[in-house]
Amino acid sequence: MEKQIIEFGKLNDTQKLEAxxxxxxxxxxxxxxxxxxxxxxxLFLEILSPDLFVCYLEDDKxxxxxxxxxxxxxxxxxxxxxxxxxxxxxKGFIINKQMNAIFxxxxxxxxxxxxxxxxxxxxxxxxxxxxxxxxxxxxSYGDYEILVTEVFSKNENAINFYKKNGFVVKKESKGSMxxxxxxxxxxxxxxxxx
Length: 194
Hints:
Layout: E1 3-7, H1 13-27, H2 37-47, E2 53-58, E3 61-69, H3 80-87, H4 89-103, E4 113-121, H5 130-139, E5 146-152, H6 156-164, E6 168-172, E7 186-192
Parallel strand pairs: 4-5
Antiparallel strand pairs: 1-2, 2-3, 3-4, 5-7, 6-7
Helix pairs in contact: 2-3, 3-4
């Protein structure tokens, strides 16, 4: 069984689609701007960063996906022209503004911090070490000292997974408006990597 971790931009077209479908399995419930799954797939094929998303492959099939950011850039940019191409001038403009207010806002403040923006593995291979392999890859990415991520308080599986991989709770944002969406409040977790 051949295993590898490669950047999204180096995948072939079939693998890129697998990666986008995996992203939507993990985070599609946050993408409420459209019910048209095919349009959303086309959009994400164009807006996921080719070098800030990395994928875990086994036998050329994408089984894990991770997006990384820092204090200057994030791995998802809802570019206005691409949003408008798929959703029209007005709706595309609204999607661009609303989604980038979240996905382009700096998630960390220091040059020494790497932000683990998204991490998802295929449901068929959960608990097989793929998420851990991706975290290990993040720990060797660039010259960062701290790996930072955020999870929602109701996602106990993710919290336990990150704790098992050396993360500690840094901050609980219990007053966050995100509680209204039913996922609980955001918890910031960190892992010292250097």
